[in-house]
Fold each of these.
Amino acid sequence: MPREPEVQDVGGDGDAARVLRHAAELKRFSRRGFLAGAGSASVLAADMIFTRRVQAERRVHKILTVPDETAGKYFPHASWFLFPGYKTSWEEALWILNALRGALNKRGQLAAVGYSNVGLDIDEIVIAVVEHARAHQLTTLYFYGHSFGGMVATQVAARLRELHGLEVALILLDSSPCTKYDVLDQSWFEGVVLLYESGFRFPTVLRGGYELGERVLHKDERSWGQVLDQTLEQLSPIAPSTVLIQSESAYIYHFDATRFAGKLGGTRMAFIGNPRDRTVDYAAARDSWSLIFKDNMASDSLRTDGARPAHASPGWNPFVYRPIIEELEDELFPLPSGGGRKTAF
């Protein structure tokens, strides 16, 4: 008869039992670990597929619109264009438009520029704006420059007039820096721009850590809920790509407003901001814009006091921003019915 295999003595019956028990525990642990790992891998794979799809759809600059029946009826040939700020996603740009809709739709329809995840390209933005204006037969354009978007709006306005004979009626600068020196935290320029121009691209996970650290550093400007929401937004598949963010940094670093002085024709400009702004030097930015564009600046005294965070936050503080926008509209572009608070609807 075949003999039963003997269990090797490893120090007595107690040691043998412990070995068998550890083996059983390892088996159970491996099964749990395998299931957990498989589940995590599935979630990661789904996220990567969705991210790839989103990124593929955002390889071009696109004009995003918020339909508004009132604006379409009363201002069929006029439109606002929002130029989003640094690290602002397409979804956040639309959110800002919706937050300000009650004020913006009193002079025009609502549109925003969705920046390409391939990187910022002013020529492509100009083409996108021109094509949208022609397709919708727009003759009056209002630009809203959200933070660094004010720089982009100014250059695009100058290009539109020079290349296409299309003059912008208003450029509203919301806490917009005029030069890189208006940005209070200069440290990020040293690394981000240098690495970008050297061909290095940041992986998303590193950007996410930076996002969280930056917001915690300026915690006094945000609630913990806002810190969490904004950080998760930057880590989500719909967030701007690292390439776009780096190209925006390089754009701010090299922007020279004096190149566009005297090239805006009759375009009016207005600067609004908050002295408590800890991202952009409010006084320095306001004074620089007013000095360089003294022939265009129509208003630089309106302030967004009470807004939190203090820097360019119309989405979070629409009830602070709407009255300011309406005041500018009534002062600079009174309606044919007599202006002031007498509106067409």
Note: DSSP finds eleven helices and seven strands in the chain.
Amino acid sequence: MAKSQILEQRQIALSGRHWRQIGRDYLIMTKPKVVAMLLLTALVGMCLAVPGIPPLKAVLLGLFGIGFQSAAAAALNHVLDRQLDAKMARTHHRPLARGRVPTLNAVTFATLLMVIGFVLLWQLNALTAWLTFASLVGYALVYTVWLKHATPQNIVIGGLAGAAPPLLGWAAVTGQFDPHALLLVMLVFAWTPPHFWALAIHRRDDYAKADIPMLPVTHGIAFTKTMVLLYTLLLTLTGLLPWLTGMSGLLYLIGSLALNLGFVGYALKLKFADQPGHAWATFKYSIWHLLGLFLVLLADHWLMVVLQ
């Protein structure tokens, strides 16, 4: 094979890797795992909003619209936190922190996602479009720009934006508020602080280095462990509300109690019998906990539909 052909093939291979890296960087900016979890909670909200199968149009436009807006919020978070991310071991490899993606390109990308998402949701109803946009503003601006740096209660107050997807999914199908949808929001809202504080304990030095007033930095790890325990107890009580109000049945009650008491168990060990790595284990359990909780909600709903 001629030397020129070998060089050409190498150039093609290098070009291919270059474009794949660019694609990965833009995908990373959307935080796909986080968006996937948000979309699951939105889908459960859609399914619980109606006694049967939700309309396909509402499901598709709703999930794509909420997904695009959530991805836009994540990309804006990368933009606004790029200097802080560069200081933290957990985030220093992110595309903007490493300078692999220009800031203007990232802003343009986020804006495009935001507009597409809003237009898709507008096709369903204005309520869902504006609620989703408000959640984007709450996370990308209110939390990232202000709350994150202003108070150790940042994740408690700012958690409302991340708790909105079940309500957004419900509104996408019905076009209105519903008290049951707010119960789903309450579940995610009560889950958020112990989820993030477990991570903050594990990464306490990282947050201190970046001068972010997370609870373990401002009030110490021991106090934060107590708050994690108290919030898991609050989550367990909140988890009873769908059953107490008749929204969900016995399957949900049993499943949610098992999951929530498991979270309490992790929090008790974190508080009274902590071992190296247990805060990280608690954080990982909390992710599976939320996934399981909403899957149990969905399974219970379909069981009640079948039995009626």
Note: Residues 278-307 form the longest helix (30 residues).
